[in-house]
């Protein structure tokens, strides 16, 4: 049995999740920081 | 009055220490400088672990190349269980001490933990097909991890289900604490029942895995754990800043009214 599609598929799913959740978290963090800085210049 | 009886409302020394770190502002000041370094470290370790496992680890004598799925499946499984354990600890702090930071942590752990559990289920399913001939079997280990995934989803839904956030935190904390009983069931399912899923290859007493496979697995695991911590901390910092922004805007609106 050719196992390459299963191995590649599991790595692809993992990498997509890790990259996706990291990008979403980073964008949320930067947005929250920017908004707070706009409201409270001391932050 | 006995020495170990405290005046009402006066926290003990341990309680003082605990409440010191319950302050969201203090958490933000402590964690923000650490985040970039931790993030870089977690990304480097995760990439090394994944690339080593995918490209440079040897094939198994019995499973062949499909064993390479282990380097993403096992770390995701461990992080999903550790994530739920941390969710249960935060829920305990939330119920007992009404820790504001514990509520924020619980709210942010849920989606990240659910994601890692989904990765564990999908990669396990893709590993099951070449080894067992089926993507899914109602095996004790697989079913208990599926229940863990549903517990995460239930927690995510429940914490956001109430107009009054405090009610959502309390209900979700109870669910998380009750659901923690699933963690020992997942760990010991391969011993308690006759399962298709293999037994534990790594325990506190040692490992049955060859070093050429163990090292990339451990590096990927440390990378996944660090990434989970970084993601949760960054989301908590974002949540704290969002709340502060909202309260400042509300205060400004009230002053203007």
Can you walk me through this structure?
The complex is a heterodimer of chains A (43) and B (257). Chain A is mainly α. Chain A is 84% helix and 0% strand. Chain A contains 1 helix and no strands. Chain A has one helix at 4-39. By secondary structure, chain B is an all-alpha fold. Chain B has helices at 13-20, 24-31, 35-56, 70-97, 100-132, 140-159, 165-179, 182-192, 211-256, and strands at residues 202-203, 206-207. Chain B has a two-stranded antiparallel sheet. The model of chain B is unreliable at 1-7 (pLDDT under 50). At the A-B interface, α1 of A face α3, α4, α5 and α9 of B.
Summarize the structure.
The complex is a heterodimer of chains A (43) and B (257). Chain A has one helix at residues 4-39. Chain A is mainly α and 43 residues long.
Strand and helix map with partners:
The complex is a heterodimer of chains A (43) and B (257).
Chain A: H1 4-39
Chain B: H1 13-20, H2 24-31, H3 35-56, H4 70-97, H5 100-132, H6 140-159, H7 165-179, H8 182-192, E1 202-203, E2 206-207, H9 211-256
Antiparallel strand pairs in B: 1-2
Helix pairs in contact in B: 2-9, 3-9, 4-5, 4-7, 4-9, 5-6, 5-9, 6-7, 6-8
């Amino acid at each position: 049995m050719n196992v390459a599609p299963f191995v590649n598929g599991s790595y692809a799913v993992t990498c997509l999740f890790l990259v996706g959740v990291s990008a979403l978290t980073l964008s949320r963090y930067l947005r929250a920081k920017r908004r707070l800085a706009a409201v409270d210049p001391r932050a | 009055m006995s020495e170990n009886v405290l005046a009402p409302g006066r926290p003990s020394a341990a309680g003082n220490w605990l409440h010191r770190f319950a302050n969201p502002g203090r958490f933000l000041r402590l964690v923000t400088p650490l985040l970039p370094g931790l993030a870089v470290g977690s990304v480097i370790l995760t990439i090394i672990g994944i690339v080593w496992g995918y490209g440079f680890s040897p094939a198994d004598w019995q499973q062949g190349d499909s064993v390479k799925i282990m380097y993403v499946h096992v770390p995701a499984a461990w992080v999903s269980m550790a994530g739920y354990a941390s969710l249960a600890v935060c829920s305990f702090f939330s119920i007992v001490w009404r820790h504001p930071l514990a509520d924020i942590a619980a709210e942010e752990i849920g989606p990240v933990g659910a994601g890692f559990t989904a990765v564990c289920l999908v990669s396990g399913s893709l590993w099951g097909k070449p080894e067992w001939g089926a993507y899914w079997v109602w095996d004790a280990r697989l079913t208990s991890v599926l229940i863990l995934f549903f517990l995460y989803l239930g927690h995510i839904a429940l914490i956001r289900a109430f107009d009054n956030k405090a009610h959502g935190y309390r209900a979700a904390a109870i669910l998380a604490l009750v659901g923690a009983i699933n963690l020992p069931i997942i760990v010991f399912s391969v011993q308690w029942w006759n399962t298709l899923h293999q037994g534990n290859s790594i325990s506190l007493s040692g490992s049955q895995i060859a070093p050429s496979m163990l090292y990339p697995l451990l590096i990927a695991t440390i990378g996944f754990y660090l990434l989970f911590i970084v993601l949760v901390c960054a989301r908590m910092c974002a949540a704290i800043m969002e709340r502060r922004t909202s309260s400042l805007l509300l205060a400004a609106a009230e002053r203007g009214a």
